[in-house]
Amino acid sequence: MLKTIIDVRTRAEYAGGHVAGSINIPLQEITEHIDEIKAMAEPIIFCCASGNRSGQATHYFQSLGLNCENGGSWLEVNFLVTQQ
């Protein structure tokens, strides 16, 4: 199943390591990309360092009707992706 992974950490954090194929949209810029995110393949998995920022993004986009979930730490998401 095709999933879109959006990493909401800062660009510097993302540059230090990320899930292969993920898209970096820092949380502080997320509202500038609403239409772009709505057009992406669902379900959308948000991730960050601990799950806090991705939880905020998930809650926001679920309130807009998107099929999305909080993947938590990018390291956890990366582990799951590499197991598929």
Biggest sheet architecture: 4 strands, parallel
The percentage of residues in β strands lies in: 15-25%
Sketch the topology as an H/E string, one letter per element: EHEHEHEH
Mean pLDDT: 95
* SS element count, helices: 4
Share of residues in helices? 25-40%
Structural class: alpha/beta
Task: Choose one word for the global shape.
Answer: globular
- Catalogue the unreliable spans: none
Structure description:
With 84 residues, this protein is α/β, with parallel strands linked by helices. It has a single domain, classed as Oxidized Rhodanese, domain 1 (3-Layer(aba) Sandwich), CATH 3.40.250. It is 38% helix and 20% strand. The chain has 4 helices and 4 strands. It has a 4-stranded parallel β-sheet. Helix 1 links the parallel strand 1 and strand 2. The longest helix is centred in the C-terminal third of the chain and has 12 residues. The chain is globular. The model has no long low-confidence stretch (mean pLDDT 95).
In short:
By secondary structure, this protein is an alpha/beta fold.
Produce the secondary structure layout.
Elements: E1 4-7, H1 11-15, E2 23-24, H2 34-38, E3 44-48, H3 52-63, E4 68-73, H4 74-83
List keywords for this structure.
single chain, 84 residues, alpha/beta, Oxidized Rhodanese, domain 1, 4-stranded parallel beta sheet, 4 strands, 38% helix
